[in-house]
Every structure is written in C-alpha cells, then in structure tokens.
Amino acid sequence: MSTDYGREIAFGVFPSPDADPDTLRRTWAVIEAAERGGLDFAGFQDHPYQRRHLDTWSLMATVLARTERLRVFPDVANLPLRPPAVLAKNAASLDVLSGGRFELGLGAGAFWEAIEAMGGERRTPREAADSLLEAMEVIRLMWSDQRSVRFAGEYHRLAGVRPGPAPVHDMGIWLGVGGPRMLRAVGRSADGWVVSHANLGPERLAEAHARIDAGAAEAGRGPASVRRVYNLWGTITGRGVEGAPGDPLRGPVEAWVEAVTGFVLEHGMDTFVLGPAENAATQVELFAAEVVPAVREAVRAARA
To answer: Which segments of 169-291 does DSSP mark as H helices, in order?
Structure first.
C-alpha cells in the first residue's frame, strides 16, 4: 500500500565530522556546495567518544556561522553523554544565534562500552528509551516561558531552575529510534523521526509508519505532523552511467530520482539527507542540481 503524507519535501547533507585537515577541507566543500545548491539541512552524527571526530556541537556552531540559509541538526545527539537541560540550552542558543536555523535530533544512545569509558552510564534498551522520553519533557520545560521549572523523573531532574533562552522558532525534536514502543512515542509527542536507509530499507517503512501513526492518533494528532527523515548513503554516477545492479543509491541520476520519488509517494518519507560515499562536494553538487529538482517536480506532478 502506498503512503504519502503530503508534507513539503526537503533535502540535506550528512558531512563527515572527522578532524583531520584533509577531511575537514572536504567537509567545508560539502557545506559550501549544499548552501550554494539551495539544500535545506546539514545533519551531523554525534559520537563524543570517537577520537577522530570533532565535537559535534562546536562543528554545528561553526557551520551556522559560515552559512546564511542552511539549517543544521544533530543526526542524532548522544543523550547519555549530554544532559538534557544543557542540551536544551545549547540547542536554543544555536537557534537564537542563527536566527532560527537549528533543529534538535535526539537519540537514546548506542555503543555503551564507549559511553561508559567516557563517564556515561550504561543503560538497558528500556532504560535508554525511558531516559529519552524524560529528556523530551525536560527539554521542553527548559524552552518554556515558565518562571521556574521542576521535573522529578527516574533519570533526569530539575529542581526549580529558571528556563531560557527560548528558541526563536518552533524548534522540533526529532527522535532517532526504531523499536515499536518508541515509534509510537514519536507519533504521540515528537516532531520528527530520523532513520537511515541502511538500517531500515523501504520495504520495512510501512510497519514503522503504522506505529507512528497509531501513536499520533492516540494523542489526537494527524500523522502529517511528524517529519520523517531518511539518511541516504550512496553514489550518484551521473546521467546514463550504469551503477550497481539492484541498488538505486549507487547508480545514475535517473535511478536516484526514481528511488527518492518513490520514497516520498510510496513509502511516506519527506526529508532526505545525503551521505556522499566519495567525491563528496561533487556528489552534493550533482544531488542539488539534478536529483533534487527532478524529485520535486515528480512529486509535484503526482500530487497534482
């Protein structure tokens, strides 16, 4: 069964956060190509224990300072190593400083040995999920206009702290989750869902959407209220150039246009973040110049 929630579609990039000079030069070239090409977002993975990576929040702040229109989000923030009240302050500050160009992607955590090695607490899958749900409440309290806020959860607490600053736009919280319970939670109370094509292929999206939609119905929300972000890794080979058989994300522009259009009209996704496998800036230029406009036109024509 085809699924299209009718949301406006958006496109972005997933640059490398590696700190070595050569990779960093490529990252800036990707950001410049995305900004120049009119893409919407830049998403950054957040693994503080990864020695090769820059600090994600420092990198995102620098990207916002070096661009004028590109919107930025962590894809997704590492909650076990970033207390939610501080996350809320960080996110709101970047939103204020950038004039409303920041969104908050949030994850429950993974790679628990590495998290423990950096001082974080190991949690079971249920504990991590419960912590994530509490964190959303804490973050929204910290963005509120209340004089002071309190929260008494099992994993997070606020004891009369004064919230602020508030974001300057209606900032979303997008959850990077995959379990049945948390997908329903996305529908009930989150603003977006973030998932990678490599982890959840299009043939498995319908079941996930059904759980999100059920959660939205429980909360009296429409399913289109949830942004659905798809991270895509692959290579665009150029028009008429044959790619990998059976893998549209390693093929020519035509294959990418067909695949991404299908992800919208048949599989319910609306935001596509490209992680270029090689020749990163050139890939982003090709994505922005040839894939994105063709997908927009195909979706527009089909919806009309």
So the answer is: 180-189, 205-218, 253-265, 280-286
Nearest to 44 by CA among 26, 57, 29, 30: 57
End-to-end CA distance of the chain: 19
Place of tokens 């246009």: 257
Instruction: Write down the mean pLDDT value for the chain.
Output: 96
pLDDT digits (tens, 9 = 90+) for 23-71: 999 999 999 999 999 999 999 999 999 999 999 999 999 999 999 999 9
Distance (Å, whole) CA 188 – CA 201: 24
Q: Are 106 and 176 in contact (CB under 8 A)?
A: yes
185 burial type by CB count under 10 A (0-12 exposed, 13-18 middle, 19+ buried): buried
- The strand pairing partners of 149, in sequence order, are 161
Residue 2 and residue 206: Cα distance in Å, rounded?
A: 9
259's tokens: 């695949």
Q: What are the phi and psi torsion angles at 293 (to 5°)?
A: -60, -35
Q: Are 238 and 253 in contact (CB under 8 A)?
A: yes
258-283 per-position pLDDT tens digit: 999 999 999 999 999 999 878 899 99
Give the separation between CA 107 and CA 95, rounded to whole angstroms.
19
- This prediction's pTM: 0.97
Placement of tokens 């659905």 in the chain? 228
Q: Are 202 and 263 in contact (CB under 8 A)?
A: yes
Size of the chain in residues: 304
